[in-house]
Design goal:
The complex is a heterodimer of chains A (about 450) and B (about 375). Chain A has 15 helices and twelve strands. Chain A has about 450 residues and is α+β, with helices and mostly antiparallel strands. Helices cover about 30% and strands about 30% of the residues of chain B. Chain B is globular and about 85 Å long. Classes of the chains: A alpha+beta (about 450), B alpha/beta (about 375).
Chain lengths: ~450, ~375
């Protein structure tokens, strides 16, 4: 490359980037040579620049030796084109102009490399730390847990504006090639401006870009990623997000927690059964209550029918308004407890849950039985280990509730049937959503 | 846009289809329903009407004050009429979905029973077919009015006893409506109903009334009732009293199993062999029993029970009643067109053989 070419590249780059405070363009001189460094100081590590560029430049006397140093340094990439160089500059690499050459020195500052504790998918035992917000650290965590030579990765960037780095991880030995192909296609077709975290993919997977049920598992646990890699799944790591995306994901994955494998077999089985019971309760209990009290009280035992009738006798509104009122209150409480500062969160839930429930019954707004039902629904909803799926379930119960108001028990049954048929129609990268058992991938 | 319209169309069509499925009964809150727990049928006092129908409504407990009820009665010729008039007397919708007992006055069933009375229960959607049918003494209304002190929910003591959820005794056998109706129609299987008697504020159930296809024909004694239920295989827990000249003891049973076989190869001399197997232990004895003597006690008990059961069967045969269903048993195994007629000839001339096998496990004490 000619010196004049470098000059123009250098000028072009300087022209394209806004001259802000943190953009550094500096020329260093010795007696014989000069070097130009170009970087953004808020993104690059200045201490490392000092160590890797400035010190050697002054210490290595011969310019040819310094050129060799630059050429052979593992963190250095050669110049390809202007466009790419600008992009690299914007993510924190240092551009070095030396003699007639341009080098890209990878001296990014890793600000979010500290490993976070798991907060969403907590387990009592087993590993307690999750991912960090730095893709490099995350990759390291996965590598550490999955020391296989066959671990392969493909890098891509998503987002027209954000240009977020996404790494597709899979095990060459176990991965299903068709799934991999579909994932690649999917990543290519994504049309979005700002891509910040893997959760955004949940909607993008649908043509309408509007989804109810998640078809990918978003996890913050490195052990979960490792176990899924071994099972032949594809993992996406997104820069800046402490969550990894696991594909393809079916319902039983959403219902399993990492705690299951850290328990003895039968205890694990019991927990899984418990979760399915919880899932069923949180979907149908409110609608069953309306259907039974307002349409088919003969299903109750006479003793229970009378006590429900007794506890409802002070309630002025029909059962479905009572149910809606309490469910909405409960949803507000759940929603509020996420927003509230951690310090007052528990207080607010106690005040809201206990006192509001108690007062509502005493004021005759809702019946005692209703309080039991609402709390049962609320508690069992959080038994679902994956948050995205639990949230979808929270929405679904209202559909059944509406059907039960108009059509009673038949409505609940039909609604449940519709729900199941919808779930049957879903698929995640070629895998039916309601897959019950999967074959272990063959080690090919 | 086309896709969207399709979606709305599907929704509307779906709603219409589902609404056609919703069946009877619209939205009615549980507190706007008045639950009938028991129905009583007596003869009307006036001569213009036939029946006095009483409905026992449970009043839901608001402030932990259980066992509150109200009985509303009405004279009418039919059930439906009475219910329509009673509906005008209460503020909430009358709901029969928890009506679990219908009590007939003995006098009503002694006369020729009108089928529409029974079929009304079967026809109504909201009356469950597991309704118990019983005979009430002295009147049905009196049975409904009785409120034992231990009863927490109206008529619950009747439900617990008839359903054997509570007390377990060989003297009670709850007869369901569906079974009663079947017995009313089926040739070779005659209806029966347990009898509930009001005695000193308590409800006593230990006898049964046997019907032919039209009316109450015979009332059994408590002991006979118990033996009949042995043949129904209804209860394992029982006590059998054995009395001879010297010995007097009571067996607490753990297992009672009965079966019968019919031998009609000789048309003039048909035999029904009934086998009853009883397992138990001595509960009380008026003497000092010995383990070595147990076979002798067993023999004594066997002889005693053989005789009693045979007497009961002969009594039923004499009255031409068949609550056990020997006729149905015969008809199920003989495929001629005139099987019912043949059976009617066979039954009066049947010979009964009863073989009881009593096994006393121990004397209940260490010698």
């Amino acid at each position: 490359m000619l010196r004049s070419n470098i000059k123009t590249t250098q000028e072009d780059l300087l022209e394209k980037i806004q001259q802000t405070e943190d953009v550094v363009f500096k020329e260093l001189f010795t007696k014989v040579e000069s070097i130009k460094v170009f970087y953004i100081k808020t993104l690059s590590d200045e201490a490392q620049i000092q160590n890797y560029i400035i010190k050697p430049f002054y210490e290595i006397e011969s310019p040819t030796l310094f050129l060799d140093y630059l050429k052979s340094h593992p963190k250095v990439k050669p110049f390809e084109n202007e466009e790419k160089t600008l992009n690299q500059l914007l993510v924190g690499e240092v551009i070095v102009f030396f003699q007639a050459k341009i080098f890209l020195f990878d001296l990014k500052m890793d600000r979010q490399s500290s490993v976070l504790d798991t907060t969403v998918e907590t387990t009592i035992q087993g590993p307690q730390s999750g991912f960090s917000e730095s893709i490099g650290t995350n990759l390291g965590l996965v590598r550490q847990r999955y020391p296989q030579a066959s671990l392969n990765m493909e890098s891509s960037s998503i987002g027209k504006v954000s240009k977020t780095k996404v790494i597709t991880l899979y095990d060459n030995k176990t991965v299903n090639q068709e799934v991999l192909k579909k994932v690649r296609e999917f990543l290519e077709t994504i049309d979005i401006e700002m891509f910040q975290s893997g959760e955004q993919l949940l909607d993008l997977i649908k043509k309408s870009q509007r989804a109810l049920f998640p078809l990918m598992l978003i996890t913050e646990r490195a052990d979960r990623v490792a176990i899924n890699l071994a099972a032949g799944k594809v993992v996406l790591l997104v820069n800046g997000s402490p969550f990894a995306v696991i594909l393809p994901t079916v319902m039983k994955d959403f219902m399993s927690s990492m705690a299951d494998i850290y328990q003895t077999y039968w205890v694990g089985c019991f927990f899984i059964t418990l979760r399915y019971i919880g899932l069923f309760i949180s979907i149908v209990l409110p609608s069953i209550y309306v259907a039974l009290t307002a349409y088919n009280p003969e299903v109750f035992r006479v003793q229970l029918a009378l006590s429900i009738a007794g506890s409802r006798s002070t309630v002025p509104y029909p059962a479905f308004i009572e149910v809606f009122f309490m469910l909405i209150m409960m949803e507000l409480l759940t929603e509020a407890s996420i927003r509230l500062p951690k310090a007052i969160g528990p207080t607010a839930t106690t005040v809201g849950g206990l006192i509001l429930g108690q007062a509502a019954t005493e004021a005759g707004l809702v019946s005692n039985i209703m309080i039991i039902i609402v709390s049962a629904v609320a508690i069992s909803n959080f038994v679902v280990p994956v948050n995205n799926f639990g949230a979808a379930i929270r929405v679904v119960k209202y559909l059944l509730l509406v059907l039960s108001i108009f059509y009673g028990l038949v409505g609940v049954v039909i609604g449940f049937l519709l729900l199941v048929s919808y779930l049957v129609s879903l698929e995640s990268f070629g895998k039916p959503f309601l897959t019950i058992s999967e074959k272990k991938p063959a080690q090919n | 846009m086309k896709l969207k319209r399709n979606w709305v169309m599907y929704l509307i069509v779906g709603m219409v289809v589902i609404s056609s499925l919703s069946g009877c009964g619209g939205y009615k809150d549980i507190d706007k329903r008045f639950f009938v727990v028991a129905i009583g049928i007596d003869a009307a006092k006036s001569h213009t009407k036939k029946y006095l129908i009483s409905l026992k409504f449970a009043i839901p407990s608001v402030e932990k004050k259980p066992n509150d009820f109200i009985i509303v009665s009405e004279e009418a010729d039919t059930m439906a009429e009475a219910v329509r008039i009673i509906k005008t007397k209460v503020d909430k919708e009358v709901d029969f979905s928890h009506a679990k007992v219908v009590v007939f006055n003995e006098k009503i069933v002694q006369k020729k029973m009108e089928p529409h009375l029974i079929y009304w229960f079967s026809r109504r959607r909201d009356i469950q077919k597991i309704l118990w049918t019983v005979i009430g003494r002295p009147t049905a209304l009196e049975v409904l009015k009785t409120k034992p002190k231990f009863e927490q929910i109206p008529s619950n003591s009747m439900f617990l006893a008839l359903g054997k959820e509570g007390t377990e005794t060989p003297y009670i056998f709850g007869e369901y409506l569906f079974d009663f109706k079947k017995r009313l129609i089926e040739k070779g299987l005659d209806p029966f109903m347990p009898i509930i008697e009001v005695k000193k504020g308590l409800l006593v159930i230990n006898t049964a009334g046997l019907f032919n296809k039209k009316r109450l024909k015979m009332v059994l004694t408590p002991e006979q009732t118990k033996l009949l239920y042995y043949i129904f295989n209804s209860e394992q827990k029982s006590a059998i009293k054995v009395k001879s000249r010297k010995l007097y003891f009571i067996i607490d049973t753990q297992k009672i199993k009965s079966s019968y076989k019919m031998d009609t190869s000789n048309p003039n001399h048909s035999i029904i062999k009934t086998k009853i197997k009883i397992k138990g232990r001595l509960e009380e004895a008026m003497f000092s029993p010995k383990n070595s003597e147990l076979p002798a006690y067993e023999k004594l008990a066997e002889k005693d029970i053989d005789k009693q059961v045979k007497n009961l069967l002969l009594k039923l045969q004499k009255a031409n009643l068949d609550p056990i269903g020997f006729g149905l048993y015969y008809r199920a195994r003989h495929f001629q067109n005139n099987d019912w007629k043949t059976w009617q000839h066979i039954y009066p001339n049947l010979t009964f053989e009863v073989h009881t096998d009593v096994h006393i496990e121990d004397t209940g004490l260490i010698e």
